[in-house]
Amino acid sequence: MRDRLRKLDFIDLFLWIVRAAIVAVILIGTVKTILSNPYTLRNWEDFIIFGIAQGSMYALIAIGYTLVYGVLQMINFAHGEFFMSGIFASTSAVAIPLARAGYLASHPIPSLLLIALCSILISIAISLLTERIAYRPLRHAPRLMPLITAIGASFFWQYYFRGLFGSQVIPFPDIPQLEGTVPFLHTFVLKSHVLVIFVTLVVLVGLNFFITSTRPGKAIRAVAENKDVAALMGINVNRTISLTFATGAAMAGVAGMLYALVFHQVHFFMGFIPGIKAFTAAVLGGIGSIPGAAVGGLFLGLFESLGPSLFLQSLGIPAFNQLKDVIAFTMLVLVLIFRPQGIVGERLKEKKA
Amino acid sequence: MSFFKDLDLRKLPMQLLVASIITLSVSAIGMVELFGGRFVITGLFTMAQILFLGPTAFFAYRAAQEAPEGKKWQGMIKALLLGVGVGLVMVVFVWLAQNLDVRSIFINISPRLINILTFEHAGGATTLFIALVLSALAGGALALVPDKLRNALLVGAGVTLLVGLLSEILAERLRSLFGSQLSSAIIASKALQVVPAAVLFLLVAGISYMRQSGRIGKVGPTLKPSQTKIVRTALISLLLLVLPMLLGSYLTEVTNNIGLFFLMGLGLNIVVGLAGLLDLGYVAFFAIGAYTMAALTSTGHLGLAGISFWVALPICVAVAAMAGFILGMPVLRMRGDYLAIVTLGFGEIIRILALSDLMKPYIGGAQGILNIPKPMVGELALIRPEQMYYVILIGVAIAMFMSTRVRDSQIGRRWMAMREDEDVAEAMGINLVNTKLLAFTIGAGFSGLAGAIFASKLGSIFPHSFNLLISINVLSLIIVGGLGSIPGTLVGAIILVGLPELLREFAEFRWLAYGVLLVTMMLNRPEGFIPSEVIKRELHAGDEAEQAG
Amino acid sequence: MSKRFLALIAVLVAGLVLAACGGGGASSAAFECTDEIGCVEVAAGAPIRIASALVISGPNADLGLDSQHGVEIAIEFKGDVLGHPVELQAEDDGCSAEGGQTAGQKIVSDPSIVAIIGTSCSGAGVPLAQIASDAGYAVVSPSNTAPSLTDPAQAWKPGYLRTAHNDKVQGAAMADFAYNTLGLTTAAAIHDGDPYTEGLANAFREAFEAEGGTVVAFTAVNVGDTDMRPVLTSIAASAGGAPEFLFFPVFTAECAHLATQSLEVAGLEDAVRGAADGCFSAAAAEAIGSASAGMYFSGPDLAFSGDTYTNFAAAYQSNFGSAPLSVFHAHAFDATNMVFACIEEVAKQSDGALLIGRQDLRDCLYATSGFAGITGSLTCNEYGDCADPKIAVYEIQSGDYVAIWP
Question: CB neighbours of C75 closer than 8 A, spacing ≥ 6?
Answer without folding.
Answer: C86, C88, C336
